Amino acid sequence: MSTRFAPLQSHLYAVVDAAARPERIYPLLQQSGKAFRSAYAGLPEEALGPASLFVIPVDDTGAEWFRELDRIDLYSPCLSMVWSYVDLDSLVTHLQAFLFADIGDNMTALVRFFDPRNTGAVFGIWGEQIRSIFMSPIERWMYRGRHRDTQSITNDAPASQRTFRSILIQFDQADIDALMAHTEPDELLATLIETDIVDGKPAYCERFADFLPRYQQAIRWDLTEPADRLVFCQHTYRYGMSFDRNPEIQNLLSGHKATGESLGVAIKRISGSVWEQIEYTRDFGTVEA
Protein backbone atom coordinates (compact mmCIF):
# COMPACT_ATOMS: atom_id res chain seq x y z
CA MET A 1 0.00 0.00 0.00
CA SER A 2 1.29 3.44 -0.86
CA THR A 3 0.17 6.99 -0.17
CA ARG A 4 0.94 10.11 -2.15
CA PHE A 5 1.25 13.43 -0.36
CA ALA A 6 -0.52 16.52 -1.59
CA PRO A 7 1.33 19.85 -1.22
CA LEU A 8 0.79 21.03 2.34
CA GLN A 9 2.51 23.40 4.70
CA SER A 10 5.41 21.66 6.40
CA HIS A 11 5.81 21.39 10.18
CA LEU A 12 9.05 21.60 12.11
CA TYR A 13 9.97 18.74 14.44
CA ALA A 14 12.97 17.89 16.59
CA VAL A 15 14.09 14.27 16.37
CA VAL A 16 15.95 13.73 19.63
CA ASP A 17 18.26 10.86 20.51
CA ALA A 18 17.82 11.20 24.25
CA ALA A 19 20.29 8.37 24.92
CA ALA A 20 23.02 10.99 24.52
CA ARG A 21 22.10 12.67 27.83
CA PRO A 22 18.80 11.28 29.15
CA GLU A 23 19.12 12.95 32.55
CA ARG A 24 19.16 16.37 30.88
CA ILE A 25 17.19 15.85 27.69
CA TYR A 26 14.05 14.14 28.94
CA PRO A 27 13.25 16.84 31.54
CA LEU A 28 13.60 19.47 28.81
CA LEU A 29 11.06 17.68 26.64
CA GLN A 30 8.69 17.54 29.60
CA GLN A 31 9.23 21.23 30.33
CA SER A 32 8.51 22.20 26.72
CA GLY A 33 4.77 21.89 27.22
CA LYS A 34 4.56 20.10 23.87
CA ALA A 35 3.11 16.68 23.18
CA PHE A 36 6.00 14.46 22.16
CA ARG A 37 6.20 10.82 21.11
CA SER A 38 8.67 7.99 21.50
CA ALA A 39 9.65 6.26 18.27
CA TYR A 40 10.28 3.16 20.40
CA ALA A 41 6.64 2.88 21.49
CA GLY A 42 5.46 -0.72 21.19
CA LEU A 43 9.00 -2.02 20.66
CA PRO A 44 11.32 -3.77 23.13
CA GLU A 45 13.47 -0.61 23.07
CA GLU A 46 10.61 1.21 24.80
CA ALA A 47 12.12 -0.13 28.04
CA LEU A 48 14.86 2.49 27.61
CA GLY A 49 12.35 5.05 28.87
CA PRO A 50 13.98 8.52 29.10
CA ALA A 51 16.85 7.30 26.90
CA SER A 52 14.54 6.63 23.94
CA LEU A 53 14.24 8.31 20.55
CA PHE A 54 11.69 11.13 20.72
CA VAL A 55 9.96 13.35 18.21
CA ILE A 56 8.59 16.71 19.35
CA PRO A 57 7.00 19.62 17.45
CA VAL A 58 8.91 22.91 17.50
CA ASP A 59 6.97 26.14 17.22
CA ASP A 60 9.66 28.48 18.50
CA THR A 61 13.39 27.77 18.10
CA GLY A 62 14.00 30.64 20.49
CA ALA A 63 12.21 28.90 23.35
CA GLU A 64 14.49 28.24 26.31
CA TRP A 65 13.93 24.47 26.29
CA PHE A 66 14.93 24.26 22.64
CA ARG A 67 17.93 26.55 23.04
CA GLU A 68 19.17 24.34 25.88
CA LEU A 69 18.62 21.23 23.75
CA ASP A 70 20.66 22.85 20.99
CA ARG A 71 23.46 23.58 23.48
CA ILE A 72 23.47 19.95 24.62
CA ASP A 73 23.74 18.86 20.98
CA LEU A 74 26.95 20.87 20.61
CA TYR A 75 28.66 18.64 23.16
CA SER A 76 26.61 15.43 22.98
CA PRO A 77 25.16 15.08 19.45
CA CYS A 78 21.48 14.26 19.82
CA LEU A 79 19.39 16.65 17.72
CA SER A 80 18.04 16.58 14.18
CA MET A 81 15.62 19.16 12.81
CA VAL A 82 13.01 17.81 10.43
CA TRP A 83 10.52 19.67 8.26
CA SER A 84 7.65 17.41 7.24
CA TYR A 85 4.17 17.62 5.71
CA VAL A 86 2.74 14.98 8.01
CA ASP A 87 1.46 15.19 11.57
CA LEU A 88 3.42 14.02 14.61
CA ASP A 89 1.98 10.52 14.85
CA SER A 90 2.43 9.87 11.13
CA LEU A 91 6.05 11.00 11.25
CA VAL A 92 6.78 8.74 14.23
CA THR A 93 5.19 5.78 12.44
CA HIS A 94 7.26 6.54 9.37
CA LEU A 95 10.53 6.71 11.31
CA GLN A 96 9.75 3.44 13.07
CA ALA A 97 9.68 1.66 9.70
CA PHE A 98 13.37 2.47 9.22
CA LEU A 99 14.67 1.63 12.68
CA PHE A 100 15.70 -1.94 11.90
CA ALA A 101 17.55 -3.75 9.16
CA ASP A 102 17.61 -7.44 8.30
CA ILE A 103 21.26 -8.48 8.68
CA GLY A 104 20.77 -12.15 7.77
CA ASP A 105 20.56 -15.38 9.78
CA ASN A 106 17.09 -14.36 10.97
CA MET A 107 18.54 -11.39 12.83
CA THR A 108 17.72 -7.70 12.78
CA ALA A 109 19.72 -4.75 14.07
CA LEU A 110 18.75 -1.29 15.22
CA VAL A 111 20.06 1.26 12.73
CA ARG A 112 20.83 4.51 14.53
CA PHE A 113 20.27 6.83 11.56
CA PHE A 114 18.87 9.35 14.05
CA ASP A 115 22.23 9.71 15.82
CA PRO A 116 23.47 12.90 14.12
CA ARG A 117 26.96 11.42 13.91
CA ASN A 118 25.61 8.57 11.76
CA THR A 119 22.95 10.20 9.58
CA GLY A 120 25.08 10.95 6.52
CA ALA A 121 26.76 7.53 6.62
CA VAL A 122 23.47 5.62 6.95
CA PHE A 123 21.93 7.60 4.11
CA GLY A 124 24.89 6.60 1.96
CA ILE A 125 24.59 2.93 2.89
CA TRP A 126 20.84 2.94 2.26
CA GLY A 127 21.32 4.06 -1.32
CA GLU A 128 19.13 6.26 -3.47
CA GLN A 129 15.97 4.14 -3.48
CA ILE A 130 15.64 3.70 0.29
CA ARG A 131 16.78 7.26 0.90
CA SER A 132 14.07 8.52 -1.46
CA ILE A 133 11.36 6.54 0.32
CA PHE A 134 12.65 7.67 3.71
CA MET A 135 12.52 11.31 2.64
CA SER A 136 9.06 11.02 1.07
CA PRO A 137 7.18 12.83 3.87
CA ILE A 138 10.19 14.98 4.74
CA GLU A 139 11.17 18.30 3.19
CA ARG A 140 14.48 18.74 4.95
CA TRP A 141 16.57 16.91 7.55
CA MET A 142 19.23 18.98 9.32
CA TYR A 143 21.84 17.88 11.84
CA ARG A 144 25.22 18.86 13.25
CA GLY A 145 26.79 15.62 14.48
CA ARG A 146 30.57 15.60 14.02
CA HIS A 147 30.49 18.81 12.02
CA ARG A 148 31.11 22.39 13.01
CA ASP A 149 28.41 23.61 10.62
CA THR A 150 24.88 22.30 10.23
CA GLN A 151 24.43 19.66 7.52
CA SER A 152 21.28 19.65 5.42
CA ILE A 153 19.58 16.91 3.40
CA THR A 154 16.85 18.31 1.19
CA ASN A 155 14.06 16.56 -0.67
CA ASP A 156 13.78 18.27 -4.05
CA ALA A 157 11.10 15.96 -5.47
CA PRO A 158 7.67 17.57 -5.96
CA ALA A 159 5.27 16.54 -3.19
CA SER A 160 2.85 15.12 -5.76
CA GLN A 161 5.51 12.65 -6.96
CA ARG A 162 6.54 11.26 -3.56
CA THR A 163 5.52 7.78 -2.50
CA PHE A 164 5.36 6.80 1.14
CA ARG A 165 5.29 3.03 1.58
CA SER A 166 6.63 0.20 3.70
CA ILE A 167 10.01 -1.24 2.81
CA LEU A 168 12.18 -4.09 3.98
CA ILE A 169 15.72 -2.89 4.63
CA GLN A 170 18.47 -5.46 4.28
CA PHE A 171 22.14 -4.97 5.11
CA ASP A 172 24.73 -7.30 3.65
CA GLN A 173 28.13 -7.81 5.29
CA ALA A 174 29.66 -4.94 3.32
CA ASP A 175 26.96 -2.59 4.63
CA ILE A 176 27.50 -3.79 8.20
CA ASP A 177 31.27 -3.37 7.87
CA ALA A 178 30.87 0.13 6.45
CA LEU A 179 28.60 1.21 9.30
CA MET A 180 30.87 -0.31 11.94
CA ALA A 181 33.88 1.42 10.39
CA HIS A 182 32.02 4.71 10.53
CA THR A 183 30.89 4.42 14.15
CA GLU A 184 34.11 3.00 15.60
CA PRO A 185 35.94 6.35 15.96
CA ASP A 186 33.04 7.79 17.98
CA GLU A 187 32.96 4.70 20.20
CA LEU A 188 36.69 4.85 20.89
CA LEU A 189 36.52 8.58 21.55
CA ALA A 190 33.70 7.98 24.04
CA THR A 191 35.90 5.48 25.89
CA LEU A 192 38.75 7.98 26.03
CA ILE A 193 36.42 10.61 27.46
CA GLU A 194 34.96 8.20 30.03
CA THR A 195 38.48 7.32 31.22
CA ASP A 196 39.47 11.02 31.44
CA ILE A 197 42.15 10.72 28.79
CA VAL A 198 40.29 13.20 26.58
CA ASP A 199 38.73 16.36 27.95
CA GLY A 200 34.96 16.21 27.46
CA LYS A 201 34.48 19.97 27.82
CA PRO A 202 35.16 21.18 24.25
CA ALA A 203 32.42 20.95 21.63
CA TYR A 204 32.08 17.51 20.07
CA CYS A 205 33.28 18.65 16.66
CA GLU A 206 36.50 19.94 18.25
CA ARG A 207 37.10 16.72 20.20
CA PHE A 208 36.45 14.61 17.12
CA ALA A 209 38.65 16.76 14.87
CA ASP A 210 41.51 16.34 17.34
CA PHE A 211 40.92 12.59 17.71
CA LEU A 212 40.48 11.59 14.07
CA PRO A 213 44.12 12.10 12.94
CA ARG A 214 45.23 9.88 15.85
CA TYR A 215 42.78 7.17 14.82
CA GLN A 216 43.89 7.43 11.19
CA GLN A 217 47.50 7.16 12.31
CA ALA A 218 46.65 3.88 14.06
CA ILE A 219 45.10 2.58 10.83
CA ARG A 220 48.24 3.49 8.88
CA TRP A 221 50.15 1.17 11.20
CA ASP A 222 47.77 -1.59 10.08
CA LEU A 223 46.22 -1.92 13.53
CA THR A 224 42.96 -3.70 12.74
CA GLU A 225 41.55 -4.44 16.17
CA PRO A 226 39.57 -1.68 17.92
CA ALA A 227 41.34 -2.45 21.21
CA ASP A 228 44.75 -1.96 19.56
CA ARG A 229 43.64 1.27 17.92
CA LEU A 230 42.39 2.48 21.29
CA VAL A 231 45.75 1.73 22.96
CA PHE A 232 47.59 3.54 20.17
CA CYS A 233 45.35 6.60 20.51
CA GLN A 234 45.78 6.59 24.30
CA HIS A 235 49.52 6.85 23.81
CA THR A 236 49.21 9.73 21.34
CA TYR A 237 47.41 11.72 24.04
CA ARG A 238 49.94 10.80 26.70
CA TYR A 239 53.16 11.03 24.69
CA GLY A 240 52.21 13.12 21.67
CA MET A 241 51.33 12.41 18.07
CA SER A 242 54.99 11.72 17.23
CA PHE A 243 55.56 9.02 19.83
CA ASP A 244 55.60 6.39 17.07
CA ARG A 245 58.69 7.97 15.50
CA ASN A 246 60.82 6.42 18.21
CA PRO A 247 62.75 3.47 16.70
CA GLU A 248 61.71 1.03 19.42
CA ILE A 249 58.05 1.97 19.03
CA GLN A 250 58.36 1.66 15.27
CA ASN A 251 59.89 -1.80 15.57
CA LEU A 252 57.12 -2.90 17.92
CA LEU A 253 54.37 -1.57 15.65
CA SER A 254 55.95 -3.01 12.50
CA GLY A 255 56.24 -6.50 13.97
CA HIS A 256 53.12 -6.46 16.11
CA LYS A 257 50.75 -8.04 13.60
CA ALA A 258 52.97 -11.05 12.98
CA THR A 259 53.04 -11.96 16.67
CA GLY A 260 49.26 -12.00 17.11
CA GLU A 261 49.79 -10.28 20.45
CA SER A 262 47.57 -7.43 21.52
CA LEU A 263 49.20 -4.01 21.40
CA GLY A 264 48.16 -3.41 25.00
CA VAL A 265 50.32 -6.34 26.11
CA ALA A 266 53.21 -5.78 23.71
CA ILE A 267 53.66 -2.12 24.50
CA LYS A 268 54.20 -2.86 28.18
CA ARG A 269 57.60 -4.31 27.26
CA ILE A 270 58.84 -0.88 26.23
CA SER A 271 61.24 0.23 28.94
CA GLY A 272 60.73 3.28 31.10
CA SER A 273 63.86 4.90 29.66
CA VAL A 274 62.33 4.81 26.19
CA TRP A 275 59.18 6.54 27.42
CA GLU A 276 61.33 9.14 29.17
CA GLN A 277 63.17 9.74 25.91
CA ILE A 278 59.87 10.08 24.03
CA GLU A 279 58.62 12.57 26.63
CA TYR A 280 61.83 14.57 26.38
CA THR A 281 61.56 14.70 22.60
CA ARG A 282 57.92 15.73 22.87
CA ASP A 283 58.70 18.55 25.29
CA PHE A 284 61.97 19.84 23.85
CA GLY A 285 62.02 18.60 20.28
CA THR A 286 65.41 16.89 20.58
CA VAL A 287 66.68 13.56 21.81
CA GLU A 288 68.08 13.73 25.33
CA ALA A 289 71.83 13.13 25.45
In short:
This protein is α+β, with helices and mostly antiparallel strands and 289 residues long. It is built from 10 helices and 10 strands.
Descriptive report:
This protein has 289 residues and is of the alpha+beta class. The protein has two domains: 2-171, no CATH class; 175-284, no CATH class. It contains ten helices and ten strands. The chain has helices at 22-31, 64-75, 88-96, 119-134, 173-194, 204-220, 226-239, 247-259, 263-266, 272-284, and strands at 2-4, 11-17, 37-38, 53-57, 79-84, 100-104, 107-110, 138-143, 151-154, 163-165. The strands form three sheets. A six-stranded antiparallel beta sheet has the order 3-4-2-5-8-9. The chain has a two-stranded antiparallel sheet with strand order 1-10. The protein has a two-stranded antiparallel sheet with strand order 6-7. β8 (138-143) and β9 (151-154) form a beta hairpin. The protein starts with a strand and ends in a 5-residue tail after the last helix.
Q: Look at the helices and sheets and give the structural class.
A: alpha+beta
- Overall strand count: 10
Strand content: 15-25%
- The mean pLDDT is 92
Main sheet summary: 6 strands, antiparallel
Alpha-carbon distance between the two ends: 77 Å
**Total DSSP helices:** 10
Compute the number of structural domains.
2
Kindly state the percentage of residues in helix: 40-55%
Poorly predicted runs: 1-7
- Write out the strand line-up for the largest beta sheet, numbering strands in chain order: 3-4-2-5-8-9
- Rg over C-alpha atoms, rounded to the nearest angstrom: 23 Å
Indicate the overall shape.
elongated
String of helices and strands: EEHEEHEHEEHEEEHHHHHH
